[in-house]
Amino acid sequence: MDVRSPEPSVDGDRIDLYRLPVTDLGRYRLVVVPGMADQEFLARHREVIRGYLDGGGVLLFGGHLHRDWLPGASRFVPLHPPSLASYRVAEIAPHPIFDGVGPDDLTFRRGVAGFFARGHHPPPPGAQVLVRLAGGEPATYVDQVSTAGTIVVHTTADLFTHGEPGTPAARVPGQLVAWARAQGRRDGGASAPVAAPADGPPGTGTGHGLAAVHSGSAPHHRALTTPQYARHLTGGLLYLPDLARTDLTGYDAVVLPERMHRGLLTAAAPRLHELLDAGGTIVAFAGGEPLPEFLPGVRFDPRPTNFWWWLEPGAGLGLRTPSPEHPLFEHLSLRDCTWHYHGALTPPAGAQTLVALPSGEALLYVDRVSTPGTLVVSTLDPLTHFGGHFMPATERFLDGFLPWLGGAVVRSAR
């Protein structure tokens, strides 16, 4: 969670989401909730958000709602089927946030569409729609009717980072903060409490089998509950804030998705070490953040992530495998591992590299030598991208990786 100051810039305080119940949000004119936020936690502390808004605050959410924590808001509806035509911004209402910004400025980043909005949230009656997509879907709206405060809901993108420097879209963050500064408390907002989520407890762990940790974010939720992938997770889902208190030794394997709260993950390190010591498997992905330092034998080297390499004529990442006979490649190809990567790995001696850069540095390896268990380590980030309805290669990767992992875990357990 980011909390922005009333000054007209994008600088502000960064507050740990899990300190929300003890944080005085009334100090801030604008609160920004990013798309990877733990919506399970937000739903359980919805009264804090309600109190801030009823005090006249301004809240911006950019992402995909999948829990009922934001007054007046409805859950994300993805575009189907996604296409260049459906991603196009068709209409921008006159408003200070988007002053001087045109439809193509929002639609495209370096000529590529899909970053701005990949669906919509149905707005409450009386909300003001600022941006519509080609099919009429409301990508951005302002709600000043559900509470005494102001709610800005944007689908998919973080409006503070969406625009390329030097483009008209780069004006949006400063204009948004300046506009938020001018908002004041109003009378007449609705005061009914939001309803409790009806989706049950955040964790469904069975104590055995193949499980995955989830952070409560919308991308993790979608990736790990989509039936084609959930069927491989025989051990269910483990909620990250509960992980440090969970006995993992009965599980065959646990998947650690990319982009999770590092403090909570580090607090669970003893439980994860116990799983490895018991002969279990840990699968760890990275998505812009270093891999957990507590994982034995892991040497992570940061690299600038080139999201745009594929725009160059004849470009390619040049991925290769020194282990083409590995059973993983009965389920997927190197093409299915090719989108971008977040850093490189130096495997410990005796580990098996499955996907490598031309330099020989690893993007995916299997380590059966550092512990009594098995580590599968990668700097790819498939779960976040598939969960965010973006990047087809990640779906192909998961279509092959999870069946291989499930079969490998069963064989290992036997």
How are the elements arranged and paired?
Layout: E1 2-4, E2 12-14, E3 30-33, H1 39-44, H2 46-54, E4 58-63, E5 77-78, H3 84-87, E6 89-92, H4 103-107, E7 108-109, E8 112-113, E9 119-120, E10 128-133, E11 138-143, E12 150-155, H5 172-182, E13 209-214, H6 218-225, H7 227-230, E14 236-239, E15 251-256, H8 262-267, H9 269-277, E16 281-285, E17 300-301, E18 344-345, E19 352-356, E20 362-367, E21 374-378, H10 382-387, H11 392-413
Parallel strand pairs: 3-4, 4-12, 13-14, 13-15, 15-16, 16-21
Antiparallel strand pairs: 1-2, 1-3, 5-9, 6-10, 7-8, 10-11, 11-12, 17-18, 19-20, 20-21
- Percent of sequence in beta strands: 15-25%
Helix content: 10-25%
- Structural class designation: alpha/beta
Shape: globular
Largest sheet: 8 strands, mixed
Q: What is the helix tally?
A: 11
Radius of gyration (Å):
22 Å
Oligomer: single chain
Are there runs of 5+ residues with pLDDT below 50, and where?
Answer: 3-9
How many strands appear in the DSSP assignment? 21
Mean pLDDT comes to 91
* Widest sheet: strand ordering: 2-1-3-4-12-11-10-6
Ends apart, CA distance between termini: 43 Å
Description:
The protein has 414 residues and is α/β, with parallel strands linked by helices. 22% of the residues lie in helices and 21% in strands. The protein contains eleven helices and 21 strands. It has helices at 39-44, 46-54, 84-87, 103-107, 172-182, 218-225, 227-230, 262-267, 269-277, 382-387, 392-413, and strands spanning 2-4, 12-14, 30-33, 58-63, 77-78, 89-92, 108-109, 112-113, 119-120, 128-133, 138-143, 150-155, 209-214, 236-239, 251-256, 281-285, 300-301, 344-345, 352-356, 362-367, 374-378. It has an eight-stranded mixed beta sheet. It has a seven-stranded mixed beta sheet with strand order 14-13-15-16-21-20-19, sandwiched between helices. Strands 5-9 form a two-stranded antiparallel sheet. The protein is globular, with a radius of gyration of 22 Å. Residues 3-9 have low confidence and may be disordered.
